[in-house]
Amino acid sequence: MVGIRDVARRAGVSPGAVSRVLNNDPTLSVTDSTKERIYQAIKELNYDIDKRKYIKRRLPSIGVITTTSRQKELDDPYFNGLRIGLEQEARRLHLGLNRVYNLEDNPKTWQDFDKLGAIIIVGTVSESAVKRLSKQNKNIVVLDNPDINLEVDMVYADFERMTKRVLQLFYEKGHRRIGYIGGVTIEINEAGEKIYTENEKRFRAYQEFMSANGLEKQAKLGLWEPLEGKRLMDEWLASEEELPTALLVGSDPLSVGVYRSLQSANITVGKEIDVASFDDIEIAEFLTPSLTTVHISAQEIAKAAVRLAKERIEDERQEPVIMTFPSKLVVRESFVPKK
Fold first, then answer.
1. Which residue range or ranges hold the HTH lacI-type domain (predicted)?
2. CB 144 within 8 A of CB 202
């Protein structure tokens, strides 16, 4: 039996293009010659348009489901970069991106996900929530959550690899008391409920590295906010626990608070304690001393997610794709690795 894919191969176009031409999609931009090739292929293959399998029309648009509030997106450079990347790439590819849902809203009020071309999920959404959403729309791209074990597209930064890389550089410089300050993972389920867990990518990699090298773990976790960085470091300084000689911090905003605490205690960063972090936000270069940090291309990660969503919308592939984006260490004064 002749199908749309057969017509697409004969006409030299994607199956999605054939479907949209047959459905008179007003948003489709193809030349008259392309349309003529499609209809010529239909004629040559004797494809019965009237008896073709009905496929519910999907709009060329993307819905975004995020665990992060709009205010937190504005406050957190990483999540703000993700949002900017999503919006820029959607505009470039002429895709609608006007439905953004926060998982703290009641999921029962969500409607019409089946009419969207695809859904991009940002943040740590529970696997059961992703499974529930896939019943409405199979075209799902998960951004920034590599722990989902479902047949969906995924895009994320190589946090775990770079965590171990920085820790190895600490080790090579002679550090054996290596500490970690980071944030907990806030997973949100299909009911919009928050689940706080220590199963976070950077912390997980820190624990594995310390165990592999027979080193004592010294770690503190809180929320991903500058004031939390100060609070956690203040607690460390007030305790009788011996301070680490090197400290890895999960994000630059947390590092701002850590810096303030250490400076208040007259502890010199880069001399008495080496510090490295993640994000490479603008302020990192202007801290005193300037902060060594891992640069993560949040905007490029988000743009890749939009491109994967477009491939799904246009039915260019059926197999899921997993993309890991590399990052790089930007060396400044707070920690200079051994040469």
1. 2-61
2. no
Query: Tell me, which fold does domain 61-157+298-327 have in CATH?
Result: Rossmann fold (3.40.50)
pLDDT beneath 50: ranges in the chain: 54-57
Compute φ and ψ for 48, nearest 5 degrees: -85, 100
Q: Give the pTM.
A: 0.78
Q: How far apart are CA 227 and CA 67, in angstroms?
A: 21
Looking at CATH, the fold of the domain delimited by 159-295 is given as Rossmann fold (3.40.50)
With contact defined as beta carbons under 8 Å apart, do 190 and 132 qualify? yes
Specify which residues 122 forms β-bridges with: 66, 143
Contacts for 231-236 with beta carbons within 8 Å, 24 or more apart?
A: 231/257, 232/181, 232/257, 232/258, 233/181, 233/257, 233/258, 233/261, 233/262, 234/261, 236/179
**3-state SS, one letter per residue, for 235-295:** HHHHCCCCCCCEEEECCHHHHHHHHHHHHHCCCCECCCEEEEEEECCHHHHHCCCCCEEEE
Sheet holding 118-122, edge to edge: 96-102, 61-66, 118-122, 140-143, 153-157, 322-325
Domain boundary assignment for the chain? 4-45, 61-157+298-327, 159-295
Per-residue pLDDT tens for 280-332? 999 999 999 999 999 999 999 999 999 999 999 988 888 999 999 989 999 99
